[in-house]
Amino acid sequence: MKKIIVLILASVMIACCVAFAGCGKTEEKVLNVYTNAGFAPYEYLDSNGKVVGVDIDVVNYIGEKLGYKVVINDIDFNAILNEVAKDKFAVGAAGMSKKAERDELALASAVYATSIQYIIAPTGTFTGDKVALADAVAYAAGTASKSIGVQEGTTGADLVSGGIEGTDVKATEYKNAIVASQDIGSTVAAVVIDKMPAEAICKDKDNLQCWSLDAEMESYVMYFNKDNADLVNQVNTILDQMIKDGLIDQYTVKHSS
Amino acid sequence: MTFADKLAKLWELRGLFAESLGLSLLIAFGAVVLGFIIGVILAVIRIAPKTNPVIKVLDKIAVTYITVIRGTPTLVQLLILYNSILISFKRMPTNLLVPIIAFGINSGAYMAEIIRSGISAVDSGQLEAGRSLGLSWITTMKKIIIPQAIKTTVPTIFNEIIILVKETSVVSYIVLKVNSEQKWDLLGMAEKQGLATPACYLVFLFFAAILYLAVVMLLTALQHLIEKRLKKNER
Questions:
Q1: Is B37 close to A16, i.e. CB distance below 8 A?
Q2: Sign of the C-alpha dihedral, residues A32, A35, A40, A45?
Q3: Rg of chain A taking only CA atoms, in angstroms
Q4: pLDDT (tens digit per residue) in A17-57
Q5: What's the pLDDT tens digit per position in B10-53?
Q6: What pLDDT is attached to residue A20?
Q7: Do A45 and B93 touch (CB under 8 A)?
Q8: Across residues A105-131, what is the average pLDDT?
Q9: Pair type for strands A218-224 and A113-115
Q10: Are A183 and A223 within one domain?
């Protein structure tokens, strides 16, 4: 009995020593990137279990240019800006559209991509390429669910909540648009999410189709800690160069195939 | 995507799922060991004769611990510990001690009650006999009572182990790191891969469920084996 206890205690102690072994190292420059890996092609998990995507390629490029080690953290989308606010060298890179509420919590970089809100609905629901928000709401009002699915915290969610005001249509919030689109036809009538994830969702499904919403263009930015304006300036210079060189388009094509 | 395609994708990711299952089991095993140690300590404190004032204080602490830990959801405990007391563990390049400690503390409270009831189930005559033979209370516990208590508590302890294995599925609420790289437990990996290949979302979830079931069935078989071995000395 004693031997077993000694053995267990010894292995726990050894485990602790091994675990703490990394703590004595000198500090190297680290960029802590926070993202939510469920937003292809900007960030998603590949077949090797690594978080990859356009945003990841962009931050890795920036990290290399500025001499930072890049650490990717996949967390809840709504927790991203909280983490950025806590850490001077944190970056929020998650296909985030620039919006006033987010600008209050963190510093936005230059725009590196644009997007527009799309709507996903059963094939043949709408005609034409662009759908007016009012038409989308009218469609939802005519279904049993009387609801439009959105991804919580996104600009799509904001758009829909504006559009349903005064109607009896509700917005159903999901952690992820992919999960939301599984419920089209039951809990929700349609789903509103950014263009690229919408196209990724509709690609393999014969029964779903996506249309562009007649809404404003949105600008994707990366968010940085408010105390790190210097870093933002450095990043913006690099982003400018990347856009001119067509690098970001290259990344987008690479991850969209 | 046809069903065959989905299975092919699942097969392609088999290494990842295996690794994630390994991580879930590692956390569960660590928590079981920690929980058992905490449980035994708490159980012994709870049943010790309250003659010593130190024991009385320890007993009150033990009761508070058990009440609070059993009274709050495991996920809430994990999130609170991750963001407060265990914050220095969270920053380590391999931060698996965070879920192990959180789940271990949780399991310890339940193990304490299981072990305590097992000890109480042992005939009080055993304790009297041990004491009257001149053995101290602790020696009687160690050599006579606890070995008998273990026999009755084996099914319930295994129940607790099975619960722990399944409980680890909430661990993707926090960021797990192994050698500074983020890793996912079985459910976390199934969900993330499901988001990366939306057509396979349901298939991956079912697969995760099947893996958990396989582990639980193995544990149940192990439990029956141990119970049979322990019954060997009975007629």
A1: no
A2: positive
A3: 22
A4: 655 555 555 567 899 999 999 888 899 998 888 999 999 99
A5: 999 999 999 999 999 999 999 999 999 999 899 989 988 888 88
A6: 56
A7: no
A8: 92
A9: antiparallel
A10: no
Helices B97-121 and B14-47: angle between axes, nearest 10 degrees: 40
Cα of B134 vs its chain's centroid, Å: 37
Residue A162 structural domain: 117-213
A72 and A122 inside one domain: no
Claim to verify: residue A204 and residue A224 sit in the same structural domain:
no
In terms of Cα–Cα distance, which of B107, B53, B77 is closest to B174?
B77
A165 and A41, same domain (yes or no): no
Q: Which residues are CB-contacts of A104 (< 8 A; sequence separation ≥ 6)?
A: none
Whether A34 and A121 map to the same domain: the answer is no
Cβ A223 vs Cβ A95: under 8 Å: no
For A218, list phi and psi in degrees, rounded to 5: -115, 150
- Do A110 and A121 lie in a common domain? no
Looking at residue B235, its pLDDT comes to 62
The total number of structural domains that make up chain A:
2
Please give the Cα distance from B169 to B217 (Å, whole number): 17
ipTM: 0.74
List all residues 6 or more positions away from B51 whose beta carbon is below 8 Å from its beta carbon: none
What residue ranges define each of the domains in chain B, with the CATH number in brackets?
3-233 (1.10.3720.10)
In this structure, the number of other CB atoms found within 10 A of the CB of residue A11 comes to: 11
Domain of residue A251, CATH code: 3.40.190.10
Query: Quick check: A8 contacting B, CB < 8 Å?
Result: yes
Asked whether residue A50 falls in the same domain as residue A169, the answer is no
C-alpha–C-alpha distance, residues B58 and B9, integer Å: 55
Best interface-test mutation with B: which of A33, A47, A207 has the largest number of B CBs within 10 A? A47
Put simply, the answer to whether A75 touches B175 (Cβ < 8 Å) is yes
Query: Could you tell me the pLDDT band of residue B93, with boundaries at 50, 70 and 90?
Result: confident
Using CA atoms, how far apart are residues A18 and B178, in angstroms rounded to an integer?
12
- The answer to whether B27 and B101 are in contact (CB under 8 A) is no
Q: Provide the whole-model pTM.
A: 0.81
